[in-house]
Design brief:
Strand content: 35-45%
Distance between the termini: 59 Å
Order of helices and strands: EHEEHEEHHEEHEEH
Radius of gyration: 22 Å
CATH superfamily of the largest domain: ACT domain
CATH topology of the largest domain: Alpha-Beta Plaits
Structural class: alpha+beta
Number of helices: 6
CATH architecture of the largest domain: 2-Layer Sandwich
Number of strands: 9
Largest sheet: 5 strands, antiparallel
Oligomer: single chain
CATH class of the largest domain: Alpha Beta
Low-confidence stretches: none
Helix content: 25-40%
Mean pLDDT: 87
Number of domains: 2
Length: 190
């Protein structure tokens, strides 16, 4: 049996309703649990970026990517291991103000993890932390042990590749040049 690895998939697509459902169905059919999912507009107008993390083996992730690429509105899909990307998450911690003030160690935890307080009122305070999944979880566990956490929420992973080029930009430039070449050829043949 193959060992499972945490893979990050980055999918670029046109912004089409229902595509997210099609992409997640690929994972469902293979009974792969999605650990995190983040969808946002990319730096390219009209192109959205899906960042998906899953625990699986290399053979399976390769098959999943091939299935996703076959979707008509998907421009590109690639998978990456941890050393091939730079990633971050963001988390918000809603803390009981009375408990937070009564527990000096709570503010030490906030400083230890380089988090920041973004809201304070008599009932609750909100701390914000961005960074690695491990640090976000560790900070939550320490604050929870101190008994001051009212709510906790975290984002999905956002990631960029560590390579010097953006694959989707190259793909779109190549597609545009092929389109212009075929258009020129059609004009010449007429």
């Amino acid at each position: 049996m193959n060992d499972k690895t945490l893979y990050t998939l980055i999918v670029h697509s046109e912004n089409i309703a229902g595509l997210l459902n099609q992409i997640t169905a690929v994972f469902t059919r293979r009974q792969i649990n999605i650990e995190s999912l983040n969808v946002s507009a990319s730096s390219i107008k009209g192109v959205h970026k899906y960042t998906i993390t899953v625990w699986t083996d290399k053979n399976t992730i390769e098959k999943v990517v091939k299935q996703i690429v076959k979707k008509i509105d998907v421009l590109q899909a690639h998978y990456f291991e941890e050393n091939e990307i730079y990633c971050h998450e963001i988390a918000l911690y809603k803390l009981s103000t009375p408990e937070f003030q009564a527990t000096p160690d709570a503010s030490k935890v906030i400083r230890k993890y380089n988090a920041r307080i973004v809201e304070v009122n008599p009932v609750f305070a909100i701390a914000e932390k961005n960074g690695s999944s491990e640090d976000i979880t560790a900070m939550y566990n320490e604050l929870r042990a101190l008994g001051c956490v009212l709510q906790f929420v975290r984002s999905g992973r956002v990631a960029i590749t560590t390579s010097c080029f953006e694959r989707v930009n190259e793909f779109l430039a190549d597609r545009e040049s092929r389109y212009l070449a075929s258009k020129k050829e059609n004009v010449t043949n007429d």
